[in-house]
Amino acid sequence: MLKLDQEGTFLGFPRIFLSNQTLVKTEHDFIVAPIFATGLHPTESGVRLYVQYMSKEMSEPIRGRGSAHNPKNRFREEELEYDICPETGRLDRPKTQLLKDHSGSIISSNNSPDIGFDFSVNPYRGCEHGCVYCYARPSHEFLNMSAGLDFESKIVVKYDAPKLLRKALAKESWDPSPIIMSGVTDPYQPIEKELRITKGCIEVLAECCNPLVVITKNHLVTRDIDLLSTLAEKRAAKVVLSITSLRNEITGTMEPRTSRPAKRLDAVRELSQAGIPVHVNIAPVIPGLTDDEMVPIMEASHEAGAESISFNIVRLPYGVKDLFVKWLEDHHPDRKDKVLNKIRSLKGGKLNRSEFGTRFRGDGAYGEQLRQLMKIHSRRLGFREDSSSLSSASFRRPETDQLRLF
Length: 406
Prior knowledge:
Helix content is 27%, strand content 17%. The protein is of the alpha/beta class. The strands form five sheets. Strands 9-10-13-14-15-16-17 form a seven-stranded mixed sheet. It has a three-stranded antiparallel sheet with strand order 1-6-5, with no helix packed on it. Strands 8-12-11 form a three-stranded mixed sheet. A hairpin with a 2-residue loop joins strand 2 (16-19) and strand 3 (22-25). 38% of the residues are buried.
């Protein structure tokens, strides 16, 4: 929120004026994206222009972050207010902040018809991996934050997740069912190495042999091979590794804090050698940028020991579209139009579709071509058509703190 004096000059930023409701720079390179403006509002002392703004330098990519700014929260009338360095005129590079979650429960239920699980545990809200395309980014807007830098730098942590999980599984009302970790953000994002909350949850699940599916992009999952192996011996564990590209130059900017492709393949190899079923999801496929890597990823995953494979087309809900377009402009300007046009060809002329049954798949001739490509090479390489099913036959309710007193 920037305050202007009676003449329309930004206070504290000399020689920038308001002319015909347009910002005109004469000395500093300030950019105001029209999509972020919500209009002019008179006040007693002058006029306030509610805008999201950034200096030209900050519109450039931030090393180690997928987004370079905070787009407007769709639930808020006002814009986010940034602290600008008076010497450089730039925003400070955000450091990761950990915020405590005070939720009283930990297992989330799902009733979406196109998501193949019923229950999930999400130890973290927000994700330091910073994947620019992440469909979970808009969930941060429910926390009164932004889907941009906030999502990857302000992580809401469920410190009590293992204790809450133990309590939930000990209830007679819990009917043992596979639990996904996690359905929203990555349970093995970088802060997990220190906090070990995911590990604590898996210790509870291993103790009671409740089936578990882990979805991750991080090699850190191999740290917990001992626990996952214990579950796998009871046919109660599976790991899904998401691989988007085999090229470091793409993953390094598109998914800046994830494990690099070779490390993810190492994780596939280590987990499968430990007897843990591994499924590789080529997700998301970026048409016009990474779709030519589908077969090489399939071959590399098979060589590493994955038993099954699938793919998903990129989803760009709400403000993620704008973040993704900006990323293309920054890193692949020559591919921008091709990528966006191909996505539209798969999404009925749009960059995103939200209807159940269509949001995860690609329509049209190109979508069918990708499905046939997957089918043909899956058969050639010998991937299982259906990944390993999980069993809850060995489930036993965990001990609670109260029972341990006796």
